């Protein structure tokens, strides 16, 4: 947040606000919200825009969530040299904020945490409730409970007539079942005698279970982290004074997310301001505000014809729309005509500016159950099952020798035997064998060539 915010023009008209970057030079117009509201805090700065009708005095607000604020403060706590040292009295907000979460710097660029310990249980005594039922007077002893009760009823004030009125009570004795106290009431007023009276009263006391409290812890190595006895921390644990658990920035931040500070808390906004002004970046949501309308400069035109002279005046009015980090506007032009006879007529036209640029919503954010939005997961790492089998085989002769078949002799009933020979066919096949092999090789070569050409 170094300097003031700036703007860039939007297509068709309007402006997009660019927030300032983190830095150690706070702008003079910066206003920090010094408390938590609905889980957020904010910083607001002035922004002068050169509007259509003149300067537009806008305001830019950066809203920071608890989680993001806690992260920036934790980073500042981790780097005390950057965010200044607690001994210097500067940027001490980070130390005191994370102290109640049991986190502090380890002195070597890291963070350490107090692991915590359970609360000690003490008897709980009750000495009544307030008339409106909103306050219960409880303590770890009859004396502690009844001191709260009598203090509730004491008063000391000056009324509208200038009279000083008081009631003062003093606890005198207690038993496990009742406490006795003396009290005096009175009033005084200039010019009038002082009126005073006193009495003794007894209040019943009852033990109503137990109450968890933390013992006092003295840290001899770092006295700043010593704690008196009292209520536990946000996580319900008591400090031990022994910061022995290393934690990351994210782990420290998570402690705040799980147990966020209440609304109206001032510690986190103060620590965030110091962290930002010492260079820590923090995400934020931009909100812009400013005047709703602005009137531009009128333009008059005089026309003279056979009917006389008429005057036409056009007055633009700009209506500004603030949506997050974008500012757009509509233009309404009102035309007023004054005729030569003194009569007037008026008309207006409105031109809408660009709509705010909205990021399209991811369909998977709206319907995560869709098949296309589901994760693919991981393939199974099971190995393919293998089986082993014993196989046996033997060759079979097909009877196809490489020699030419023997001659075939045909016996006739009458006449000599006829001999059929395959010799001529075998000789012809032997001569054609190279040609057949060559033709097959040529066909194979053509097939391979065609396949390579297609590839």
Task: Provide a quick synopsis of the model.
Helices cover 20% and strands 36% of the residues. The protein has helices at residues 66-78, 80-83, 93-99, 142-153, 249-258, 267-277, 363-366, 423-454, and strands spanning 6-9, 15-18, 31-32, 40-51, 54-65, 103-105, 111-113, 120-129, 136-139, 155-158, 164-174, 178-189, 192-204, 206-213, 245-247, 285-289, 293-295, 299-305, 308-323, 326-338, 344-351, 408-410, 418-420.
The major β-sheet equals: 7 strands, antiparallel
Report the strand count.
Answer: 23
Tell me the strand percentage band: 35-45%
N→C terminal distance: 61 Å
Mean pLDDT: 83
Uncertain ranges: 84-90
* Structural class by helix and strand composition: alpha+beta
Overall geometric form: flat
Q: In which range does the helix fraction lie?
A: 10-25%
Q: Please tell me how large the radius of gyration is.
A: 48 Å
> How many helix segments?
8
Written overview of the protein:
It is a single chain. The protein is α+β, with helices and mostly antiparallel strands and 455 residues long. Among the domains are: 120-210, no CATH class; 293-351, no CATH class; 420-454. Helices cover 20% and strands 36% of the residues. It is built from 8 helices and 23 strands. Strands 1, 2, 17, 18, 19, 20 and 21 form a 7-stranded antiparallel β-sheet that branches. A 4-stranded antiparallel β-sheet has the order 3-4-5-16. A 4-stranded antiparallel β-sheet has the order 10-11-12-13. The chain is flat. Residues 84-90 have low confidence and may be disordered.
